[in-house]
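For the sake of transparency, this paper describes our internal protein records without simplification. The record that follows is passed on verbatim for readers who wish to inspect the format:
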Amino acid sequence: MGIVIDFIYENPTEALAAYDIRVHRQDLNADIAGFVYKSCKDIYHIVINSNLNWRTQTEIFLHEISHIKDDLPTTDYIIGLDMRHHHVEAQADWTAKETAKAYGY
C-alpha cells in the first residue's frame, strides 16, 4: 500500500509525528465526515467527525491520509464544498477502502 501507510500501520504515533500530522476528533455537522488542511506551520491537521462509528472514522482517516500522500504535495490548496463527485475524492475513497481491506479493517 505504500511506505507511508505501512509506517502508520506499524507505528502510528511515530509515523504521524514524522510526517507532522495531527488528528482531531470533533463533533461536526452530520454532513461533514472529515477534512484535512495544512497549517501555515506546515502541519497537516486531519479533522474527523466524532459522531461516526469507529469503522467509518478509520475510513475517513485513511481517506484524508490519501489526500496528504497523493494530492496535497502537488496542489497548494483545495477548498471544496460538496466535492464528493470530484475525481480526487473518488480516488481517495478507493484508496481508503483498499487500504482498509489490505490491513484487515
Remarks:
- The beta strands are 21-26, 34-38, 44-49.
- Residues 39 and 45 are 7 Å apart (CA to CA).
- The chain has a mean pLDDT of 81.
